[in-house]
């Protein structure tokens, strides 16, 4: 029997969600300046990738770019994958070290809320994938908006101005 990679990915994602392992990261303190620096660098790299995938989607939602189902599908899958990584990279508390970070201290004090916000990003990315797979052009703008709203929610609470 031949299974599509999307079906296998969906099954794996569902299993991870049901088992609670998608965002099961606990906050840990950085153990050294080097560890804090690396954690900060990786965290920022993840957000650069999020930004690079959100840019075209935002342009489409605003009407500055035409809807491109291939780009929407690819970027939504990437955003879902990046959401899966966020818990790991956000969970390292770097407050005790002098690192350049845009994170507010509250991120590590309210980590269960951060995990919920990351899950909202993942769910929103899956929603865009579903809209594209259904070919529902009327849902594209709203699905992209939900991704943007999930990002904004976290930025509002946990990112320094």
Quick rundown:
Helix content is 72%, strand content 2%.
Provide structural commentary.
With 161 residues, this protein is mainly α. Helices cover 72% and strands 2% of the residues. It contains 6 helices and 2 strands. A two-stranded parallel sheet has the order 1-2. The model is unreliable at 1-24 (pLDDT under 50).
Q: What tags apply to this protein structure?
A:
disordered N terminus, 6 helices, about 160 residues, two-stranded parallel ribbon
Helix-strand pattern, N to C? HEHHEHHH
Mean pLDDT: 88
Low-confidence stretches: 1-24
Q: How many distinct helices?
A: 6
> Approximately how much helix is present in the residues?
over 70%
Strand content: under 5%
Radius of gyration: 17 Å
Q: Which structural class matches the secondary elements?
A: mainly alpha
- End-to-end gap: 53 Å
**Inertia-based shape:** elongated
Care to count the β-strands?
2
In spatial order, strands of the major sheet run 1-2
Main sheet properties: 2 strands, parallel
- What's the quaternary structure here? single chain
